[in-house]
Each structure stands twice: as structure tokens, then as C-alpha cells.
């Protein structure tokens, strides 16, 4: 037994060391930096100047940051509703015994294996382009005024971004929902069918209640993904600058940390404060999801 313990320690020590150095130390350093004034990420601690809550107060009074938080909230709420509903619908259809399940599952999931930059470029140039994009050509065939709509400007720009992002997210959550549905015993559905329950009734009375833990997991993953929203926002912005209609907190954090936004001064401490706020956002959402979506143990 003693030899086994020594072997366990030998295997765990390198992993623990890497965890402390690569993960825990940067996290603690970032949290600490958010309460100081620091220009560069790699500035020594001795050069930091204590600021208390000043960085957080400044952020909460910065219109650009507040706009980015509002954009993130809209992506989380409206995008979450769209993605979860469509993903659940596809999962329910593909697990109902429909023919060609593997083919349809592959088709829906393909956008998830395409690089986000390539996917965004496809939407911007092939779908939303106001001269030769698909939507322009389609509506032109019917003589609709929608053919004149510029989907890459104004308030419409945000919604075109949201549609493209949701399109690329459905397949991932569909697979998770399919895995949850396939874990449910067929005997339960067979008994419900014998009792005269329709497919719709079975879905709302059996499938959804038995998938509470899966739904909770998807909501958590969705929140983490939206908080880290970066590439799509950058692709929808003009070169070398971020636009208010599509900026998100992660993009704002990048700009303020590295001073990439025109004459913006580098402020690593402010960027650290944004990162801390985003982490707290995930924790708050996770807390409320756990409170609202109960995953009582159910025998499948």
C-alpha cells in the first residue's frame, strides 16, 4: 500500500505543479491586478499602483463597456432561445426513428468543424453582401424591397451576426441533446404509447423532464461560449476597429489590454477587471441555472 501511495504521488506531483503554474497562478495574478494600475500584462508587481475598486467603477461608467455587455446579453438571451429550441427540435426528430439519421446529423454538425473565420467570411460575402449575396439575389427575384437592405450596417448588422453565429452553433448542442434523449429507456416511451400519449405529449411530459441535467449542461456551455465571444465580433467589425453594434466584453478586454483601438492607451489592469467580471457573470448564471433547473435523480 505504501508503495502504491508513493507511485500515486509521483504521478500527481507533475500534474499538480503544472496546474499551479499554468492555471492557478495566472488566475490569482489577474484577480490581484484588477485592483491596481498596471499598463502591461507582463509588468512586474513592484510597478503596480494600488487602485482599489477604481477599475471596476470606471468600467461601470464607460459607455462602450456597457454597450458590449448589452450586446452579450442579447446574444445570450435571443441566441440561446434560438439555438436551444432548434437544437432540441432536430434532436427530437433524429431520435424518433427517421431514416437517414447519420446523414442528417452529419449535415447539421458540419458548420461546427469549419473554422469560425472561414464560416464568418462565407456569411459576410456569400449571404449578406448587398451586391451579390444570396439574400440580395433571392429577394431581387421577387422584386422585394428587402433586396436593398444592407445587412452589414446599422442595427441590422448585429442581427445578421446573431443569425450566422446561431447557424454554426446548432449542431453542437443537437448532439448533446441527442445523447441525452438516447439515454432514456425506450420502455418509457413504449408505455406512454400504449397509454395513448402522442409524440408531442411524450416530448413535453417525458423527454423534457428527463433531460433537465442535459439542459443545464447546455445552458452552462452556452454561457461560457457567449462570454468568450470574440472571433465573430471581430469579423463583423470594420478593419482595425470594433463597432458598437457588435462589440462584446471579450473584444473590449482585448482592445483595452493591448491598446489596439486607435489611440487607446494600454491598460492591463482594466482588462483584468473585465476578465474578473466575465468570470463572475458565468458563476452567477451557473448559480441561477442550478436554482431554476432542478436535476432530481430519475431512474431511466
UniProtKB/TrEMBL annotation:
Every ABC transmembrane type-1 domain range: 69-289
Locations listed in the record: Cell membrane
Keyword Chaperone appears in the UniProt entry: no
SUPFAM superfamilies found in the cross-reference section: MetI-like (SSF161098)
Transmembrane segments: 7-27, 75-95, 107-128, 158-178, 214-232, 268-289
Pfam short name (any one): BPD_transp_1
GO BP term, example: transmembrane transport
Xref: InterPro entries: MetI-like, MetI-like_sf, UgpAE/MalFG_permease
Topology in the lipid bilayer: Multi-pass membrane protein
Keyword Transmembrane helix: yes
Entry GO CC: plasma membrane
Predominant location category: membrane
Source organism superkingdom: Bacteria
Keywords for this protein: Cell membrane, Membrane, Transmembrane, Transmembrane helix, Transport
Similarity field: Belongs to the binding-protein-dependent transport system permease family.
Protein's name according to its UniProt entry: Sugar ABC transporter permease
Amino acid at each position: 500500500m505504501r508503495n502504491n501511495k508513493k507511485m500515486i504521488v509521483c504521478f500527481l506531483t507533475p500534474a499538480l505543479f503544472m496546474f499551479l503554474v499554468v492555471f492557478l497562478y495566472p488566475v490569482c495574478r489577474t484577480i490581484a491586478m484588477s485592483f491596481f494600475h498596471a499598463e502591461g500584462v507582463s509588468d512586474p508587481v513592484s510597478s503596480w499602483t494600488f487602485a482599489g475598486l477604481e477599475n471596476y467603477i470606471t468600467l461601470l461608467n464607460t459607455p462602450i463597456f456597457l454597450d458590449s455587455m448589452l450586446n452579450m446579453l442579447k446574444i445570450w438571451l435571443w441566441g440561446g432561445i434560438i439555438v436551444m429550441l432548434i437544437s432540441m427540435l432536430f434532436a427530437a426528430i433524429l431520435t424518433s426513428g427517421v431514416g437517414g439519421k447519420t446523414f442528417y446529423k452529419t449535415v447539421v454538425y458540419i458548420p461546427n468543424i469549419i473554422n469560425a473565420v472561414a464560416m464568418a467570411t462565407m456569411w459576410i460575402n456569400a449571404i449578406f453582401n448587398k451586391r451579390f449575396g444570396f439574400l440580395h439575389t433571392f429577394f431581387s427575384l421577387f422584386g422585394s424591397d428587402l433586396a436593398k437592405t444592407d445587412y452589414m450596417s446599422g442595427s441590422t448588422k448585429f442581427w445578421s451576426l446573431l443569425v450566422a453565429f446561431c447557424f454554426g452553433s446548432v449542431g453542437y448542442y443537437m448532439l448533446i441533446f441527442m445523447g441525452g434523449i438516447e439515454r432514456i429507456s425506450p420502455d418509457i416511451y413504449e408505455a406512454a404509447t400504449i397509454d395513448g400519449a402522442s409524440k408531442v405529449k411524450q416530448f413535453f411530459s417525458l423527454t423534457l423532464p428527463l433531460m433537465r441535467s442535459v439542459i443545464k449542461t447546455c445552458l452552462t456551455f452556452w454561457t461560457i461560449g457567449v462570454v468568450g465571444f470574440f472571433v465573430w465580433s471581430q469579423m463583423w467589425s470594420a478593419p482595425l476597429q470594433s463597432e458598437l453594434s457588435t462589440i462584446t466584453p471579450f473584444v473590449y478586454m482585448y482592445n483595452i489590454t493591448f491598446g489596439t483601438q486607435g489611440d487607446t492607451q494600454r491598460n492591463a489592469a482594466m482588462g483584468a477587471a473585465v476578465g474578473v467580471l466575465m468570470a463572475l457573470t458565468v458563476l452567477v448564471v451557473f448559480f441561477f441555472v442550478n436554482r431554476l433547473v432542478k436535476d432530481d435523480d430519475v431512474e431511466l
